[in-house]
Amino acid sequence: MELINDTVFGKSLRLEANMAGWQQLYWDGQLVSVRPASPDTPEEIQHVFELQSEAGNVDCQLDLKLRWSPLQLEYTVSSQGQVLQSNSRDEKDIAGTTPEELVPMRRQFSVVGLASLGIKLLKSAKAIKVLLVGASVAAYSWLFSFQFALLLLLCLVIHEYGHIRAMKYFGLKTKGIYLIPFVGGLAVGENRLNTRWQSVVISIMGPVFGLFLSVASLVLFYITGEAIFAGLAAFNALLNLFNLLPILPLDGGHILKAITFSMHNAVGLVLCVAGAILGVVLSYSLGLALLGFLLLIGSGEILLEWRMRHHSPLLPLDRYGQIFSTVWYVLVIAAFIGVIYIVASSGDEVLRLPLEILKS
Q1: Which one is the CATH code of 2-95: 3.40.50, 2.40.128, 1.10.20, 2.40.50?
Q2: Strands (E) located in the chain
Q3: CA distances for 354 relative to 84, 254, 256, 345, angstroms
Q4: pTM of the predicted model as reported, rounded to 2 decimal places
Q5: Structure confidence by residue, pLDDT tens digits, 115-161
Q6: Domain residue ranges in the chain
């Protein structure tokens, strides 16, 4: 993540770092000092480097005191005993900035590269969105029915709009929503994230907006008695519930990864394993066999990556953020399961289908 973005001699001074101890210091876009990753990272760190000014080369040093949880950074840039710049930053300062890619990646010719370029070109054309919507309607109409296709697109658009609103809340630029036939939807952003809190909020707001749709549909069902609203509430709940499974690249996978990768010691790992086991046991006790099975697989996949959490450029969640995110995640899942149970209790066999899928 970008810890420092300051100005020295009228040019930019930036420091990129992660919790593993890796640091790279840039002045005017040029790499001037590197600190490799180390298992033992001291709080007080010094970078010694040389800058070019109008008066010639100047020997400088950056002294910084860094504490990760909660984030607190104090730094001083000096030259020949004279302080050039002194400042401090905390988590709010880091989260409020837009990260920049300082080192351009080397481009190599490959089929994957061409495909990536093609996707970027497609994203730049607004007409492609309309074509994808038409293709999605045609695909789902062929697979199901025209009415079902429209309801499915409504669910997808509202879900992805939740992601878009969260991105804009954090000041991130967006490119809009893309509907992909037989795949779903995709909310496209332009900026990298700074913190795992941003990852949690952006990931969970898609299902939260989906929950708004299910609750609204359930209310309309009780007001009008029309079964189509109950079907929309249950199907949308099932769709978002599967999206909350802790499997990457689903939203649930990003949420659980943000929570678990913010834990710094063995206690956090034990709590993560215990939570996964509890979720599996609870799912099977409720007769939700499929949910429990996928929860087990997804949790195992994320736990395997747990050791690499310190190498991420994202600022981790503090203890409050971990607890809040976990409770929020569990409550949204419980709400969707509740909607499915309520609709299934109506007595209509068709409306019981989402619940039967979870029990399969």
Answers
A1: 2.40.128
A2: 2-8, 11-17, 23-27, 30-35, 44-53, 56-67, 72-79, 82-90, 174-180, 184-189
A3: 64, 24, 24, 12
A4: 0.67
A5: 554 555 455 556 565 565 566 556 555 655 667 677 878 888 899 89
A6: 2-95, 126-191, 193-360
